[in-house]
């Protein structure tokens, strides 16, 4: 009963690598000594990586119940919806241009505590297409 896949009194100790990964934020920050990033990456749980230019970011909306919406307007218009929990710091960091990448964690797991920031789902919606 010591290797149960769910929390229990008998399975209270996690390995150090799991505990460290569980407490990390699902985003990468630019170092203070680096220049501000020109682009930020969105890393989806299916392995796709999409990059967007910070200069195209027009608006961020921190909505109730764990939703952060990014409105981008470049060659095409996008809405990126980030669903998760504890996203206030992420919204502030994006507004300051400090984020290098966001990582979609997918469904919640027992290894990721409820008190830590989490990105459960990222949806990229294209609102307009290129001019033909």
Features:
132 residues, mainly beta, 4-stranded mixed sheet, 4-stranded antiparallel sheet, 2 helices, 8 strands, 12% helix, globular
C-alpha geometry: globular
Q: Could you say which structural class the secondary elements and strand pairing correspond to?
A: mainly beta
Q: What is the number of beta strands?
A: 8
Radius of gyration: 17 Å
- Uncertain spans: 9-22
State the separation between the terminal residues, measured CA to CA: 62 Å
Query: How much strand content do the residues show?
Result: 35-45%
Strand adjacency order, main sheet: 1-7-2-3
Q: What level of helicity do the residues show?
A: 10-25%
Number of helices: 2
Mean of residue pLDDT values: 82
Biggest β-sheet, characterized?
Answer: 4 strands, mixed
Task: List the secondary-structure elements in sequence, H or E.
Answer: HEEEEEEHEE
């Amino acid at each position: 009963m010591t290797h149960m896949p769910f929390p229990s009194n008998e399975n209270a100790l996690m390995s150090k690598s799991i505990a460290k990964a569980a407490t990390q934020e699902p985003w990468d920050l630019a170092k203070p000594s680096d220049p501000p990033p020109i682009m930020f990456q969105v890393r989806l749980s299916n392995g796709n990586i999409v990059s967007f230019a910070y200069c195209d970011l027009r608006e961020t909306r921190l909505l109730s119940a764990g939703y952060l919406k990014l409105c981008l307007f470049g060659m095409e218009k996008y809405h990126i919806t980030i669903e998760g929990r504890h996203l206030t710091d992420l919204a502030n960091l994006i507004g300051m241009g400090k984020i290098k990448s966001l990582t979609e964690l997918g469904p919640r797991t027992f290894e990721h505590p409820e008190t830590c920031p989490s990105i459960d789902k990222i949806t990229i919606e294209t609102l307009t297409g290129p001019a033909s």
